[in-house]
Design brief:
This protein is 70% helix and 2% strand. The protein has 199 residues and is mainly alpha-helical.
Length: 199
C-alpha cells in the first residue's frame, strides 16, 4: 500500500532538502553520505531513500526545487502596472531575497555537474531559461536597441546583471554598509545606465 502524504509533507521535504544541501556544501559531493544526510535532517535512512533513491536524485531535487521556487517568486513579483525600470528592480530584489540564507544551495548548484544526467541538466536549463527570460524581456522593453541583428547585446547584458546578483552570496552580509534594497537599486542602475554608453 502506498504511503500517504502527511499534511506537512512539503514543509518537511523543504527542510530535508535544506539539511541535505548543508551536508553537501560542507562535506563535498563525493564525501557526503545518505546516512549523514538522514542524520542531519532528523529522519531515518529508509525514509530518505523512500523519497530520494540516490544522492544524485537528491542533488537534482535540491537544485530543481530552488530554481522552481525562484521562478515562482519572480512570477508573483511581476507587476505590469509598474514602469519597466521599477519592474526590473523589483525582479532583482526578488532574487536577492531568495538568495538570503541560500549559500548551501548555491554551492550545490555550482558543484553538481558530475552528479547530474544529461536529461536532468536539460530540465534545469529549461527552468533557468525561464528565469533569465523574465529579466531579458524587461531589459528589452527599456532598451529595445539591445536586441537587433547588428547589436545582439540583450543576452550579454542580461547575464551581466545575473553575474552581479549570483555572486552576492560571496561577500554580502546583512547588517553591513548597504542593504539588499540598496544593492538591488545599485545593480539595476549600473545595468540600465551602463547600457547607454555601450556602442
Amino acid at each position: 500500500m502506498a504511503r500517504t502524504r502527511a499534511n506537512d509533507f512539503e514543509e518537511k521535504r523543504h527542510q530535508l532538502l535544506l539539511s541535505a544541501a548543508n551536508v553537501f556544501a560542507t562535506q563535498g559531493m563525493e564525501k557526503a553520505s545518505m546516512s549523514q544526510i538522514a542524520s542531519e535532517a532528523g529522519v531515518s535512512k529508509s525514509l530518505l531513500y523512500h523519497y530520494y533513491p540516490s544522492k544524485d536524485a537528491l542533488i537534482f531535487a535540491i537544485i530543481e526545487t530552488h530554481l522552481e521556487d525562484l521562478d515562482a517568486a519572480l512570477a508573483e513579483a511581476h507587476d505590469p502596472a509598474l514602469p519597466a525600470e521599477a519592474r526590473l528592480e523589483r525582479l532583482v530584489m526578488t532574487v536577492l531575497d531568495a538568495y538570503r540564507g541560500a549559500d548551501d544551495l548555491h554551492k550545490v548548484q555550482l558543484n553538481a555537474g558530475p552528479a547530474l544526467s544529461d536529461a536532468q541538466k536539460a530540465d534545469l536549463t529549461g527552468i533557468e531559461r525561464r528565469i533569465v527570460k523574465r529579466f531579458s524581456a524587461v531589459i528589452r522593453e527599456i532598451h529595445p536597441t539591445l536586441d537587433t541583428p547588428d547589436r545582439p547585446l540583450l543576452m550579454p547584458v542580461t547575464m551581466s546583471l545575473f553575474g552581479m546578483m549570483n555572486w552576492v552570496y560571496m561577500w554580502f552580509r546583512d547588517g553591513g554598509a548597504i542593504s539588499r534594497e540598496d544593492y538591488a537599486h545599485m545593480a539595476t542602475t549600473l545595468i540600465l545606465e551602463g547600457v547607454k554608453a555601450v556602442k
